[in-house]
Amino acid sequence: MLRRISPCHVQLGMYVHALEGRWADQPHWPRERLLDDEGEVEQLRRSVLTSIVIDTDKGRSIPFATRRTPAPAGGTVAGLRVGKASADPTMKGLLQTVGRSRREVMRVVEDVRLGRPISVARLGPVLTDLSEQVERNAAAFLGILRLKARDEYTYLHSVAVSALMMNLARTLDRPAEEVSALGMAGLLHDVGKIAMPPDILNKPGRLTEEEFAVMRRHAEDGARILKAGQGVPDAAFDVCLHHHERMDGKGYPFGLTGDRLSLAARMGAICDVYDALTSHRAYKDAWSPQKALAEMQSWAGHFDPALLKAFLRSLGIFPRGTLVRLRDSLLGVVIADNEEQPTRPTVRCFHSIPMDAPIAPEDVRLAHDNVLTLEDPADWRIANWPAVRARLLGEAA
């Protein structure tokens, strides 16, 4: 819901939809954004703006006593409801980490534009902060990063891919130094887009063949920028150059097949596409995590299947039709998404693990004490899983 409030009531964790007042009184500001920095909150509080419109579906609301007349109705996109949670220290820490990371990525971009080499040492503290937040509460942190507005995509996409890479690396039990290198790779994977013409990079419609040919150069441009940098890990160079390659060899810039792609490059391809699909872009609205993952699973030849399965485990988000296990007692198929809590879908249970026998189908809306894990039908000797799944979903086989 959109609400109009006085500037004096602005708080950390709110999502700014619009600023109202004379143009000259408005600070230099992206069109929409999540407030993740105390300095920016204070700037708005001191401003002489008439009012500020916030979106309570995308960020923190306000105490009832301070509410004013609701703003005119407008479209909203479902995302993480920060709500009252943004007042607690944990959520505040997550928001501030997002803000610091965004500002540091912006500084790196500006350095490159000015012809300065990238200094990985400058990104070290940001990466440490990101790593700690992902380790403490990956679901909440990745949820906040989904709130980025179209104007923030360029900077926060790199932060999100970094967090996703580290989260996946930990799921794969990679060594700590490799987790760190992969996180740095995420921060730097799209640095080549700095060299792209803005009218192509931000085009709201489909790119022409000529425009797409220009856009495809960003991987090699980025690799050249990183090569001139200081202390850039090999994984970062590799991911920057190869994150648009595909397992079937139909990617770019070199058309390499999966057997010639490193683990880091294959991870980067998954994390980059997932964040792009679940983000608001100049030319499209965000998909839900479930829709994005379901589509990615359907793209034969695009991703490493085993890594994609590990990525689903790392997020704890399973699309409709996925076989899952509830604790150690039941097998079920996901039948309905939960937009507000993607890790808590509705599951149709059909098999008892202790009895090793079918049961009458029962629908369960997962609670916080349930443990959900992704399962392979072959491990449970389920014959003709596509037909079984279709029957449970009420679809034609």
In short:
Residues 132-327 form the HD-GYP domain. The protein contains 13 helices and nine strands.
Description:
- The chain is an alpha+beta fold and 397 residues long.
- Helices cover 42% and strands 12% of the residues.
- The chain has 13 helices and 9 strands.
- The strands form 2 sheets. It has a 5-stranded antiparallel sheet. The protein has a 4-stranded antiparallel sheet with strand order 1-4-2-3, with no helix packed on it.
- It is globular, with a radius of gyration of 22 Å.
- The chain starts with a strand and ends with a helix.
Give the topology, please.
Elements: E1 2-5, E2 15-20, E3 33-34, H1 38-46, E4 51-55, H2 89-113, H3 120-145, H4 153-171, H5 176-188, H6 198-201, H7 209-215, H8 218-227, H9 234-242, H10 263-277, H11 289-298, H12 305-315, E5 323-326, E6 330-336, E7 346-352, E8 357-365, E9 372-374, H13 385-393
Antiparallel strand pairs: 1-4, 2-3, 2-4, 5-6, 5-9, 6-7, 7-8
Helix pairs in contact: 2-3, 2-4, 3-4, 3-5, 4-5, 4-10, 4-12, 5-9, 8-9, 9-10
InterPro entries: DUF3391, HD/PDEase_dom, HD_GYP_dom, HDIG_dom
Protein name: HD-GYP domain-containing protein
Pfam family, one: HD_5
